[in-house]
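User: Need the bound-state model for magnesium ion:
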Amino acid sequence: MNPLDNDIKFVSGVGEVRAKLLGREIGVKSVRDMLYHFPFRYIDRTKIYSIGELNDTNTSGYIQLRVRVVGKNFFGEGRRRRFTLYVTDQTGKAELVWFQGIKWVENRFELGREYIVFGKPNFFRGELSMIHPEVESVEKALSRKEKSGLQGIYSTTEKLSTALGTKGLYTIICNLWGSVQGKIVDYMPQYLRQQYGLISLEEALYNIHFPQSAPKLKQAQYRLKFDELFGIQLNIQTLRSARTSVRAGFLFPKIGEAFNTFYTDCLPFPLTEAQKRVIREIRSDTVSGYQMNRLLQGDVGSGKTVVALASMLIAVDNGYQACMMAPTEILARQHFATIVKMLGKTSVRVGVLTGTTKTKERRQTLAALEAGEIDILVGTHALLEERVRFSNLGFVVIDEQHRFGVEQRSRLWTKNNNPPHILVMTATPIPRTLAMTVYGDLDVSVIDELPPGRRPIKTLHYYEQARLRLFGFIREQIEAGRQIYIVYPLIKESEKADYANLEEGFAAIVRDFPLPKYRVVACHGKMKADDKEESMRQFKCGEADILVATSVIEVGVDVPNATVMVIESAERFGLAQLHQLRGRVGRGANQSYCILMSDEKLSKESKTRLEAMCETTDGFRLAELDLKLRGAGDINGTLQSGTAIDFKIANPALDNQILQVAQQAAIAVLTIDPTLTTEQHRSLRELKERYSTDDNRDFSMIS
Ligand code: ADP
Ligand code: MG
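Assistant: Bound-state model below.
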């Protein structure tokens, strides 16, 4: 038996209880799982900085200090409460700040004692501070026996680090290494390792956990990233040749009544050239005989919905059903309303199905769908359920792709014998190779033109102290008949505090904007679906002036009369999200504004982000900057949330070069050995398998 397949509970220092916890918290069940739980960063244990040598320009990333605690204090009230630790070394002084777990932190530190502090330095007016640093007593830090100068830091969870201690995962990996050393079999054929300059798998795994030197760590990272991207490419390229070698795509040769009536009688505006071009591209896919798999990228507000609708109508004209899947209830309902309104003059039958559809209505809709009495079905994830059966589904639209996984997508096409054409829409611009890696085998279309007559949105950055000015401005806008969004961040890790912020903010708004003159509503995840919908309805039809919400409105809400988007704690949002939120205004004829509220203390990166938002409204430029600003973990989080591939180390956005090499390698291998059956390639199946998704299974069924 391969020692990597051993249950993690047999590793010394683990045992039944901790094994259960490891499985539940981070999905680690076997020795292999643990070995592939890589550090997300490393501390250079050999390097300790002194406060005096650090300044705004010579530091980036995390650093280590050795400091003495000279004072503690609490500041602020309620959600603004924070704890500050004053520390010094021989060369200067600094502040360590905590916003969460304050009580616990306070009790951990003794005045006069020395600690090793690890964190990201911030500078405010020349003063050094660190927010939420990792801290360890000097005695403890020095007593530890290190396997190398660079020590890995592993992502963990609150429960795990409570049970195992902060260094617990590192210790487990130290313990298990002895049992696998010399026994790790490399699936990569020798000739490929030579050709692509890859170190052995064992050496790579050793150095990723215990880097013997910085260059060795680089080589280890390269090898493991290569493996990951290569494994994915083996799947994608197999899939691609399957798709382009069978002509299993539905044919939509006809342009008929539905499309024509819509185009000539229903469209309230002429299409932009870009919209027309994309419809032509889709049209040529749907007469090619191959199954379409297309990603449509278009900035927020570029008019993707109409393109999707026109395409679905072509399917309907050819006797097929179409469906459109949206990531949220609100958005699905809105799409449904838009489509019903636009198709008023046609005989196309439209249905809607979401998680909150009532039983009776659901039964009717499902029956009608199976009988072919519904042409276009709009909905949420609910469309993926087993009981949703089409009579002949020919075209699928998925809005805002990043919320859905490849796996989920494939569940739609198992609803047919043949896979329907698939159009995936996203407002996040991504290069083609990257899109392929993250989303699978896709062709890409772009709407690179906004509808005419849009006025660029003015974006302003206000600090907390300008709140009165903000409220004055909101009053002016409401008096002029406009509507306002106020958005609060909501992040899983700090959900409780975030809801408290929102509730407090909502109460303050209601106080400052009293009835009957002002009508304020809220919309967030803790409310009942009916109440949420009622708030949205009131805001949409102008019965409410201000909508206070979490980022649920990020995607897709369309209220042309709303001209102000206020984003609270804007420093906590990523650029992509800020841009999406801003896209909610500027949809009508009036000048619109986006106001970014933030705390005064900002990290360098947050400042850069907010400045970029004020400077440009170009989504592509912001996306580029976003890639540059973010660390690997971050971008992976955003791009991958909802995608089926679980990248452990590669960052498809930043490792573009490795991606290209891996792609070439995969194509080369598959060209000489498409089914990986020869002696030298057989072991690669293990790798391919690891990165396979449901897509492949579906395609192999077809071919
Ligand atoms: P997104 O690409 O963000 O999904 P939407 O499809 O919601 O954008 O379109 C944004 C707004 O622009 C909608 O109100 C829509 O009716 C309008 N719109 C779309 N295409 C055009 C066009 N060619 N001319 C004018 N307005 C348009
Ligand atoms: Mg949209």
